[in-house]
Amino acid sequence: MSAPVHATPKTPPKTFHVKSFGCQMNVYDGERMAELMAADGLTATDDAAAADLVVLNTCHIREKATEKVYSDIGRLRKHAREQDRAAPMIAVAGCVAQAEGEEIVRRAKVDVVVGPQAYHHLPKLVADAAAGTPALDTDMPLASKFGALPARRRVGASAFLTVQEGCDKFCTYCVVPYTRGAEVSRPFDAIVEEARALVDAGAREITLLGQNVNAWNDADDRGLHGLIRALDRIPGLARIRYTTSHPNDMTQGLIDAHRDVAALMPFLHLPVQAGSDRVLRAMNRSHTRDSYLRLIDRIRAVCPDIALSGDFIVGFPGETEAEFAETIALVDAVGYAQAFSFKYSPRPGTPAATMEAQVGDAAMDDRLQRLQAALNRDQAAFNAATVGRRCTILIERRGKLPGQWLGKSPWLQSVHVIGDHAIGDMVEVDLTQAGPNSLTGRVTAPAAATAC
Ligand code: 5AD
Ligand code: SF4
């Protein structure tokens, strides 16, 4: 749908700033929008308050994330008033744009609204806005946006690559199937080509992204593991990761790739959401507590070293204290290396939002606190258990101290080292100390090129 928004001509923007909220796919989309605007002749700035155009790449997954957009718009305009300068042009992109297009226009009078499947039109929409005919574009066209995006040029040591978008699972709490649309896999050749371009642009690690990344497939039925094996043949690509996976799409081929492909890192983000079968059924998760635990057993049988991560929701409508206790027991049984946990947030248009027995905020706070205590305990234990191990870290950026660098272990832990390094170096370290969120490593030999 394309519709007129406002009609006040503005000076065409010369500088822009993209701010991404939410998931890693938004980070990827934000980078692609920045490349698009740069290719259109605009200059990127790190300072949102000084930019002529601010693109807010939004997240709709929980209410808090959505509200952040409106407070950001207010802050940007207030700041411009205080500085006695014209308010920046504001483009709202991402899932809030998709879900609340008309509402944003009414509530915040922004210049451009563009959904996640239409952002290749951003330069045109911005030009229209400058000319006084701003627009809303939340189309989900059949033709993919990816072909219309410029080639990748400069990236960090670790880069994201979207291979799959959308979701057909319809968990009853989730907006993603509505904001990102149905499951679509990008073509094999386009992905391999983009991966090569990322490596040429400096990436040594690529994280394949998808709302259901392990549902990726093509007409030749290669599956995500086939794609990973093909990417493994790209010279210069040292590490491959993928996220987020659904338990039901975790094939034996993908599990086996964790044993066979050295570049595939021993880390798996596999959300379970809850530990009670009744809650899982009400969530429409289509797996049970037991099938999830058996899957974890199969993965660990093939790759005993794997670090597991998860997502959890506490206070889903009707969740009793006893059902919540089953989530804690599942956490105890799995032993996650890290995890994300959230209070249930009713999202307009989803089935769970109108279910009876919504759980009160105090009970949700209490459950979240207990769950996070258990998850933090396990994360600290996982980190402590890696002390004494030797592994390779990929240097991603400078640390705060002189001579300090920050890299990632194969298990996605942040590791601080001191030495003469550069971004993109693979450095062999002995892990010497563990904190709750990061570790310290001592360099053993320069520029080793293998993972643990
Ligand atoms: N409320 C709380 N958490 C949610 N998530 C998705 N929808 C909701 C919601 N309505 C969480 C899930 C998902 C993660 C990305 O966000 O745990 O895996
Ligand atoms: Fe949302 Fe469920 Fe799809 Fe994940 S699998 S994106 S939680 S609907």
3D architecture notes:
The protein has 452 residues and is an alpha/beta fold. Among the domains are: 15-137, Methylthiotransferase, N-terminal domain (Rossmann fold, 3-Layer(aba) Sandwich); 390-446, Nucleic acid-binding proteins (OB fold (Dihydrolipoamide Acetyltransferase, E2P), Beta Barrel). It is 35% helix and 22% strand. It contains 12 helices and 20 strands. It has helices spanning 24-39, 63-82, 94-108, 122-131, 176-179, 188-200, 223-231, 252-260, 277-282, 289-302, 321-334, 361-386; strands at residues 2-4, 15-20, 43-44, 53-58, 89-93, 112-114, 135-137, 158-162, 164-165, 184-185, 205-209, 239-243, 267-269, 307-314, 338-343, 390-398, 404-408, 414-418, 426-434, 438-445. Strands 1-7-6-5-4-2-3 form a 7-stranded mixed sheet, sandwiched between helices. It has a 5-stranded mixed barrel with strand order 16-17-18-20-19. Strands 8-11-12 form a 3-stranded parallel sheet, sandwiched between helices. Strand 6 (112-114), helix 4 (122-131) and strand 7 form a beta-alpha-beta unit. Helix 11 packs parallel to helix 12 (361-386). The longest helix is centred in the last third of the chain and has 26 residues, at 361-386. The protein is globular and about 60 Å long. The protein starts with a strand and ends in a 7-residue tail after the last strand. Mean pLDDT is 93; it is low at 1-5 and 447-452. The site of 5'-deoxyadenosine has 12 residues, from strand 14. 5'-deoxyadenosine is lined by residues 61-62, 173-174, 271, 273, 311, 313, 342, 344-345, 347.
